[in-house]
Design a protein that fits this description.
seven-stranded mixed β-sheet; single chain; Dihydrodipicolinate Reductase, domain 2; binds nicotinamide-adenine-dinucleotide; 11 helices; alpha/beta
């Protein structure tokens, strides 16, 4: 506990969305920071407090508050169609947006316009015009707009990037990534908003950002193709996808191409031994990196409890509840650390030095390309391209390709057998 709690600067936070990911990463962060304020030499101790929550119905908030074990208390709960705007009218300084994928843009736009720092769950937004708008609003209102990409904080991926930066692994040529979610996600958890959605947008972005951040920025995104399967989550001829296979091709400065295949699904059986199945392999001129995100050495069997309630091959590095060797109970992992980083960045902007130097501190935090929305262009471009390709396939035209920054524009969609393109985004990606 802090010695002088009433003297500390306080960052008040708001949540839009109070679902699964709130419970998994934001809740443990807000609980932990109640006990121990953020600290850096520049800011000194800074309290962070969850002040308000906006949701569609308010029912999960009620459930949370009815549980005597719940730690977070005293925050305001607003619900209904105008909930997010009601929240932005309060004096919260930072807003975290954890609504369904296709409901990020509206609350993010309104929060930035109200002068709040914003953290958005991945995928930030679904198209480049929306990203342009958020970037411009953050600039105009002098606040941060950031997106959650926790895979970049995974120690294995930090080491991969270190090996690439230090030129131990040279010149990535190609790779594959696979991320398979259980059926309970598409059939239960997301059933309210699943229609017309696809698992590529939901989870391929984790790997898109890993690839773009680790192997870029001195290369150019060149083209995107995608296909997939339907028939389990929705009708076989409908707009809702069970699984998606995406290919993205980049061009290195020496004109050699690098291609990545990213396979995603949300119809894997629920009795799968891990929460999600995640595997990658990247091949270089002089090496291969292969990783499995849940087979990191732990294998657990508990009669009647694995693999549903407890998992056979858990990833405790992402998120786990522990008794620390010094006796304290904790919940930690890189999924939570990345939320904490955002609040550290906000604290640095607001309290990291004299008010007259705030603009310079803001510039420094905006320059962090791992999470700033201005550095999310390639990922959002790929999502926009993939969604357009899947929509054309659902409309009876499979096999489209999106060319990036070609003669036709930033994102130009070509249907098989046609020379002319539909321009999805005219500006440069
Ligand atoms: N970082 C990760 O690994 C990770 C994991 C899971 C989910 N996510 C992302 O987090 C986001 C939320 O996912 P989830 O699993 O928590 O979903 P969820 O369905 O469990 O929760 C969604 C929440 O949003 C609220 N909501 C919906 N529409 C709203 C609206 N119009 N205004 C205000 N609130 C609204 C709901 O009331 C609910 O509280 C998604 O974008 C998802 O992609 C990220």
């Amino acid at each position: 506990m802090t010695n002088q709690p009433h003297c500390l600067p306080v960052l008040t936070a708001g949540m839009v969305g109070f679902g699964m990911i709130f419970d998994e990463t934001y809740r443990p962060f807000f609980e932990a920071v109640r006990r121990v304020p953020l600290y850096s030499p520049e800011t000194g101790p800074v309290d962070v407090s969850l002040a308000a929550v906006a949701t569609r119905t308010g029912s999960r908030v009620e459930q949370y508050l009815a549980d005597p074990a719940s730690v977070l208390r005293g925050f305001r709960s607003v619900s209904g169609p105008a909930a997010a705007r009601d929240l932005f009218a309060t004096d919260v300084r930072a807003v975290c947006i954890a609504t369904p994928d296709d409901r990020h843009h509206g609350p993010a736009r309104d929060a930035l316009a109200a002068g709040k720092h914003v953290l958005i769950e991945k995928p930030s937004v679904l198209d480049l015009p929306h990203l342009d708008q958020l970037t411009a609003l953050a600039e105009r209102h002098g606040v941060l707009a950031k997106v959650v990409y926790h895979k970049l904080a995974d120690p294995d991926h930090k080491k991969l990037r270190t090996l690439v930066t230090d030129k131990i692994l040279n010149h990535v040529n190609n790779g594959y990534c696979s991320l398979l979610e259980p059926k309970s996600i598409s059939g239960g958890q997301f059933s309210e908003w699943i229609r017309g959605r696809n698992p590529g947008t939901y989870v391929a972005v984790h790997y898109l950002k890993l690839i773009d951040f680790t192997f870029g920025p001195d290369w150019a995104l060149d083209r995107v193709t995608a296909t997939g399967q339907r028939g389990l989550v929705g009708p076989a001829d409908g707009p809702t996808w069970d699984s998606v296979q995406l290919q993205v091709v980049y061009r290195h400065p020496d004109a050699r191409e690098a291609a990545f295949d990213i396979h995603t699904s949300w119809v894997t059986p629920d009795n799968f031994p891990g929460y999600v199945e995640q595997e990658v392999q990247f091949r270089f001129d002089n090496g291969v990196w292969a990783a499995h995100q849940r087979k990191r050495g732990v294998e657990l069997t508990v009669e009647n409890r694995t693999p549903r309630e407890l998992k056979n091959t858990p990833n405790y590095h992402y998120n786990g509840t522990f008794i620390e060797p010094w006796g304290e109970r904790s919940q930690r992992g890189y999924g939570i650390e990345v939320i904490e980083r955002f609040f550290r960045e906000v604290a640095f902007v607001e309290y990291g030095g004299p008010a007259g130097e705030r603009a310079e501190r803001l510039r420094q935090m905006r320059a962090l390309t791992y999470n700033d929305v201005s550095a999310d262009r390639n990922c959002v471009a790929i999502v926009q391209a993939m969604e357009a390709i899947l929509a054309r396939a659902a409309a009876g035209v499979p096999g489209c390709l999106v060319k990036v920054n070609g003669p036709g524009g930033g994102l130009a969609l070509y249907e098989p057998g046609t020379a002319s393109a539909t321009i999805l985004y005219p500006g440069r990606v």
